[in-house]
# Entry
Amino acid sequence: MIKRLIFIPILFLLLCVSSCSSFVAIERSEHECSDSAFVQYLKSEGIPYTHNNHVDILNGAHMKFDSLLADIEKAKHHIHLEYFNFRNDSINEVVIGSLAKKAKEGVEVRAMFDAFGNMSNDRPLKKKDLEAIRAQGIEIIKFDPINFPWVNRNSRDHRKIVVIDGKIGYIGGINVADYYLNGIEGVGEWRDMHSKITGEAVNELQKIFLDMWEAEGGGRIDGKEYYPEHDVEGGADVAVVDRWPGRTPERMRRAYANAIHAAKDSIILINPYFMPMPIVRKALEKAIDDGVKVTLILSEKGDIPLVPDGVWRVGYQLMKRGAEVYMYTGGFNHSKVMCVDGKYCTIGSANLNSRSLIYDYETNLFIFGKEDTDELQHYINLDKQNSYRLTKEIYKDRSCWRRFCGWFVTVFTPFM
# Structure
C-alpha cells in the first residue's frame, strides 16, 4: 500500500514532465509581431481560426444573464446550453422558465450539465427537478452520470457554452448559479467574466456542443439550420481552442503556453486556483527573464480549503522572479482571462491548473484585435484597482502555518 501511495504522485509528475519535454515553444523574436507568431502556431496545429466575428466582453454575471435572457427571448429555431452546473436556485429558475417558454413556441431546447459538477454544488438538480424540466419540453442530459458504486470518469465537462440559432454564442467562466450574482457568505463577491460572439466562430462552438451531445447519448443532430450563413463583416479573428480528453488532450495547455511565449512587451492575466502546470509556469518564468512585463491578479480568498495558501506561495515565487503580483480583495475572482501585448486576448472556461489542463473538457476563445483586447484589459485593470500589490513584507507577515500550508498544497499541484 505504501509503495502504491508513493508511486501515484510520481506517475503524475512524470506525466507533467513528459508533456513539457515534447513541447516546442515559440521563440520570442525581435523581428516578428507576437500576434503573427501565435497565429502561425495556431494554424500549424490545425486549431480552428475564424474571421469576421463580433465579440462583446460581458463584465460580470449581471451583464451575462441580461444579455443571454434577451437573446433566448428572440430565439427562432434552437437553443443549446452546455454548463458545468445548473445550480437549483433563483437564476436557474429564471433561465429554465425562459427556455420552457421558447420550447412551448416550438424552439428546440437542449441542455447538458456535468454530473459531478451538479452533485458537488450545495443545491443540485435532483431527479424530480429534471423530470419537471423535461415535462416543459426541454431536452436535458447529464455528462458522465454518477451511478453505483459512485465512480465515474475523472474528466469533467467544465465548459460554459450557449449557442442560439447557430448565430449567437456565449462562452466564458460563468455557470448558471446565483452566487455569481449575489456572492457567497464568507467569501464575498464571486467575480467572473463571459463573452458573447457572433460570426464564423459560432460554428465551432456549435460543433463542440453537438459532438458532446451525441457522445453522451443525446443523438446525432445535423443540418444547415444548425450552421447558418453569418452576415458579420470585418471584426475580429478568433481561434476556438477546445480541450477534449482523448482527442486534443494537450491543445489548451500548449496554446496558453505559446500565447505567453510569443509575448514581447506585456502579459496581464487573472486566473483562479493559480497553481499552474509546469508548461505554463515555465512560460511565465521565461517571459519574466526575457524582460516581458508580467502582471498577475490573484485572489487572496477562495472556495476550496488550503488552495488560497498555494496561490499565495506561487504568486510570491513569481513576484521574486520579477512579476508584478496583485492580490484581489473584492471577493473571489473566478475569471479566466489574459491579454498579451495589447494585441490579443483569451477568455473561456480553462483554469491553468492540472485539473483543467490534464483532465477536463474546456473551451477558450483567443481573440485577435486591439479593440477587443483593450476592452478586456480595461476590465482587468478595474479589478487591479480592487487589489493590492504583493510584497516580500506582506508575504512574510503571513503566519508560519499559512506559509507551511502553501508549501504543502503546492506539492500536490499535479492533483489540483
